[in-house]
């Protein structure tokens, strides 16, 4: 049985999710779309031949919709999760779950009380390369993991307001990856480039490893999200995380290779796979692989990084970061 899912917020990522649900997630049916801008809602609704509205309440009142994908600006996520939960709809919420850990905890509690599932959009967990890194940790191939290095570069800053600072908007992907690969984070030390569009964050992990996360919002050349895990027995590096499938051009003593233009290109498969998973969640076939608790933990690390940047000193992450209040 296919899950009937709708998308709220039809900007860069919401359009992509709507298209994926309509065209390449067999376990799901795109059952409606909503956007605050009427012209946008109409355009995407007509494109896919589904009902459209600018009213989230109307969309949530549709009894045929079992779950929603929330892809509005981040500041609105907690309230929309709560409204969807109150209407009894399962929720896939884009990252970050919100900009404030307290509001996010309330949203998680609301979903739990309503008995609806909440999945969060950390798509790396559905990406084959990142899954290979995790498998190398799990099967012991690396020995003791000592160092984790992540680089995360966007070509240009995000267009819209309401997305949060570099740690909340970009870093949460890496902070989630660090937790997933190296365990809970206990201490954070962050520094920012003078222009504010790049940062380096050092994280101490409870299992003993240290991680370095490098973030750039204006790297120009393309989208790049790569990692390297250094263990006592072996090191694993994501070999082509920044590249499109294609050829390498060897000429004049150098080699050139294509890079992904943006996150949509690099993570195309992972975006489909996370919605396949959500379709299974919405029909009761699986529990969310990425939870509200994971989202809050990543957000706490992001707010700790902002405090460290402001104070210029390492800051301890609050205890029980992985558990909503
Ligand atoms: N997982 C990823 O790789 C990834 C990539 C891009 C964006 N995101 C996240 O997705 C979210 C959206 O980002 P974006 O870049 O698509 O933003 P965007 O600004 O391009 O689009 C947001 C859309 O939401 C609509 N909107 C605003 N308020 C609304 C409301 N109350 N009800 C319904 N619609 C409303 C706007 O009209 C707009 O069309 C953000 O939280 C962002 O962090 C995640």
Task: Explain what this protein looks like in three dimensions.
The chain is of the alpha/beta class. 37% of the residues lie in helices and 24% in strands. It is built from 10 helices and 15 strands. It has helices at 12-23, 38-48, 56-61, 77-86, 101-114, 128-138, 166-182, 263-266, 268-282, 292-311; strands at residues 3-8, 28-34, 52-53, 67-70, 90-93, 118-120, 145-153, 185-192, 198-205, 210-216, 224-231, 235-237, 249-251, 254-256, 315-316. The strands form 3 sheets. Strands 12-11-7-10-9-8-15 form a 7-stranded mixed beta sheet. The protein has a 6-stranded parallel beta sheet with strand order 3-2-1-4-5-6, sandwiched between helices. Strands 13-14 form a two-stranded antiparallel ribbon. A hairpin with a 4-residue loop joins strand 9 (198-205) and strand 10. Helix 7 crosses helix 10 (292-311). It is globular. The model is unreliable at 320-325 (pLDDT under 50). Nicotinamide-adenine-dinucleotide (NAD) binds next to helix 1.
User: C-alpha Rg, in Å?
Assistant: 20 Å
Q: What structural category characterises the helix and strand content?
A: alpha/beta
Q: Which molecules are bound besides the chains?
A: nicotinamide-adenine-dinucleotide
Percentage of β-strand residues: 15-25%
Distance between the termini: 35 Å
For the largest sheet, list the strands in their spatial order. 12-11-7-10-9-8-15
Describe this protein with a few key phrases.
binds nicotinamide-adenine-dinucleotide, seven-stranded mixed beta sheet, alpha/beta, single chain, six-stranded parallel beta sheet, 325 residues, 15 strands
